[in-house]
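Subject: Sanity check before I submit

Could someone independently write out the structure tokens for this chain? I want to compare against mine line by line before I put it in a report. The sequence has 217 residues.
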Amino acid sequence: MPEFGPEAFARATGVSHETLARLKAYVGLLNDWNARHNLVSKNSLEDVWRRHVWDSAQLIRFVPDSASSLVDLGSGAGFPGLVLAVLLRERPGFKTVLYESIAKKCAFLIAAAERMQIAVEVRNARMEKARPEPFDLVTARACAPLTRLLGYARPFQGPRTINLFLKGQNVAAELTEARTSWKLNAVRHESLTDPSGAILEIRDIEHVAARYQTRRR
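---
Independent answer below. Compare away.
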């Protein structure tokens, strides 16, 4: 696969020079911290602009103009949450919340947001214990199998919520399993960065296992 660096990323996405500069600062900080804290796999950093930055940025095409809030579940090193926060930073009053249970990763998220001069809220907490709070967008990447991920996402659902989940080659099996206990409106999009990957755009999720169990009795 040909080398894919910041210039190729800029051509693929059309981001401004200012946005690219902020993302370069982010990647530089990630390389520095990763040597000490193992935030992402070392091998993935060899293709960081494709595997992490562009993989995250491709979600922007599914973000409606009306969206004003985003929660990223299991943010890790900030993919996709921090990348989307940079791309959406000019929307007045846009709110970005990053959930991460590991303290060292939260410290990195805070440092990266400060380096890029963007406003985000980092919550060092387990998302399964979150109180109900609606967001326009719910994102996740490499967080959990879909059935469990929908449970994590449920407290953040509102009437207009769009869930954008980056998934790998097992997406079809995950969807089949999820539909045994969840009612959902799902559209599968091809990934721009990984031929075996996919983006799930999900709306109107409802847990239905209990209802089905009641019918069987």
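---
OP: Matches mine. For the report I'm noting this point. The first strand starts at residue 69 and ends at 73.
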